[in-house]
Design a protein that fits this description.
CATH class: Alpha Beta
CATH topology: Aminopeptidase
Strand content: 15-25%
Shape: globular
CATH superfamily: Gcn5-related N-acetyltransferase (GNAT)
CATH architecture: 3-Layer(aba) Sandwich
Structural class: alpha+beta
Order of helices and strands: EHHEEEHEHH
Low-confidence stretches: none
Distance between the termini: 59 Å
Strand order of the largest sheet: 1-2-3-4-5
Largest sheet: 5 strands, mixed
Mean pLDDT: 93
Number of domains: 1
Number of helices: 5
Helix content: 25-40%
Number of strands: 5
Length: about 170
């Protein structure tokens, strides 16, 4: 009997983009919302490797350097702590690679970045029915119950943006 191969974690490379996009679509399917996922390889490549990237990524790879999981993240900022943190947008490990430690290693990599850079938080959200809650609790993550997420999108986003235009306060960003 051979020992299971422990995945390797490394920063995402341009050649990983198609595999990561495919896994994002797999994640959307898993989260019962494939019709809401419109990510393309061009979009992800620009976000990760364009002239001013604000998105970062790591991949878990197998012994053949093939991506089997990923973490996509960006910096946030805590005004109370006065320092940045990491917001984990997506974490996914292909079903065949679950149980290899890839998810834990991806999170450990982000935790290491936080510690080395002096960031105080590694945060993420998950659907309330996701069975990963047990895994997250096992690594010491705590559910934040006093904060309720909000989202502004679609028509409501456009209507509020129109208010900035009509009030003459359009930002120059």
């Amino acid at each position: 009997m051979t020992a299971p191969v422990i995945p390797t974690i490394r920063p995402a490379r341009p050649e990983d983009v198609p595999a990561v996009v495919a896994m994002v679509h797999d994640l959307a399917e898993y989260e019962r919302a494939p019709e809401q996922c419109h990510l393309t390889t061009d979009q992800l490549a620009a976000a990760l490797f364009g002239s001013a990237p604000a998105l970062f990524g790591h991949v878990a790879v197998d012994q053949h350097d093939e991506p089997i999981g990923f973490a996509l993240w960006f910096l946030n900022f805590s005004t109370w702590a006065g320092v940045h943190g990491i917001y984990l947008e997506d974490l996914y490990v292909r079903p065949a690679a679950r149980g290899t430690g890839a998810g834990r290693l991806l999170l450990a990599t982000l935790a290491d970045i936080c510690v080395r850079r002096g960031y105080r938080r590694l945060e993420w959200s998950m659907l309330d029915w996701n069975p990963a809650a047990g895994f997250y609790a096992s690594i010491g993550a705590e559910q934040v119950t006093e904060w309720v997420p909000y989202r502004l999108s679609g028509d409501a986003l456009r209507e509020l943006a129109d208010h900035a235009t009509t009030a003459g306060t359009r930002p120059d960003h």
